[in-house]
Amino acid sequence: MDKTDKRGGYRAGAGRKPLRRETSKNPKLRTNDPIEFLRALMRDSRVSIKLRQDSAKKLLSLEQRLEPKEHKVEGKKAAAKTRAATAVNGRFGPGRPPSSVVTFRRKGGGEAA
């Protein structure tokens, strides 16, 4: 058998090529905080505009999710409870109690005998 008939096994130069890691010269991009990383990426003028736009979108959605909500959103059951509580005081609620002062008038307007 000849060396050219070799099948299988190790071959020099075969296989996946190692990825070249891109590193930035911006020291702010070397942070562990994702928000600071996105801000630095968005502000870096050496990065492509597409990548800067994507980082701005992600940063905006992240900040909107992290900001505290000003209004309380109720679920269906809680909303039904509050509607039921306000309906009690409405049309179908209890009426006024009777007045404590009762005046009687005789019919005919005559004097009592």
Question: What would your notes on this structure say?
Answer:
The chain is elongated. The protein has a domain at 24-69. The model has no long low-confidence stretch (mean pLDDT 78). By secondary structure, it is mainly alpha-helical. Helix 1 (34-43) runs antiparallel to helix 2. The protein is 36% helix and 0% strand. It contains 3 helices and no strands. The longest helix is centred in the middle third of the chain and has 18 residues, at 49-66.
Summarize the structure.
Helix content is 36%, strand content 0%. By secondary structure, the chain is mainly alpha-helical.
Number of helices: 3
Which value, in Å, is the CA radius of gyration?
Answer: 40 Å
What is the terminal-to-terminal distance?
147 Å
> What does the average pLDDT come to?
78
The tally of strands reads 0
